[in-house]
């Protein structure tokens, strides 16, 4: 009887040691389950489609200048040498007519002495005036000859009639007037050519004359 009572407390202690961890694990599991069950759950939702904000502008056409950098040699599209068409002495040069200067189309670059050409034009103007006077005089002579021919009342051959009416003299007077007018036009053209002008917008590369230089055609 004494041995049985002594063994019972030892068995109880063993059972307590075994059951205590089980009890602790059970309580811990219950607490964890309770926390998990009571915590809020996230529900999966499909993402909402967000419209994108865009800015609309009307399309317009315009020219865009593109700048391209590069290396190369610049050459003129047109190049010429100006020569005088009349002879004479250089009286005036354009200001700053130096290599590298810019000139505009129609600008006077060189002026040649105009004295001789002015005299020649005046002479030809006088020749035109004389030729016009001769033509008017010959027309008067022809009118008188026609009146005399009509008073005679004779019929002449075409050749004789032309001589009587002074038609050769009238034709000669007209020819002298045309010749004088042509000479005047030539003298006027020579006077205009005493000014050497730029034929187009250009840049001077070389100058070979000075004021007082004597130049000739070509």
Topology:
Blueprint: H1 2-38, E1 88-93, E2 102-103, E3 108-112, H2 115-152, H3 158-164, H4 167-192, E4 195-197, E5 202-203, E6 214-215
Antiparallel strand pairs: 1-3, 1-6, 2-5, 3-4
Helix pairs in contact: 2-4
Summarize the structure.
The protein has 218 residues and is an alpha+beta fold. It has helices at 2-38, 115-152, 158-164, 167-192, and strands spanning 88-93, 102-103, 108-112, 195-197, 202-203, 214-215.
Overview of the structural elements:
This protein has helices spanning 2-38, 115-152, 158-164, 167-192; strands spanning 88-93, 102-103, 108-112, 195-197, 202-203, 214-215. The chain has 218 residues and is α+β, with helices and mostly antiparallel strands. The strands form 2 sheets. The protein has a 4-stranded antiparallel β-sheet with strand order 4-3-1-6, with no helix packed on it. Strands 2-5 form a two-stranded antiparallel sheet. α2 packs antiparallel against α4. The longest helix has 38 residues, at 115-152. It is rod-shaped. The model is unreliable at 1-7 (pLDDT under 50).
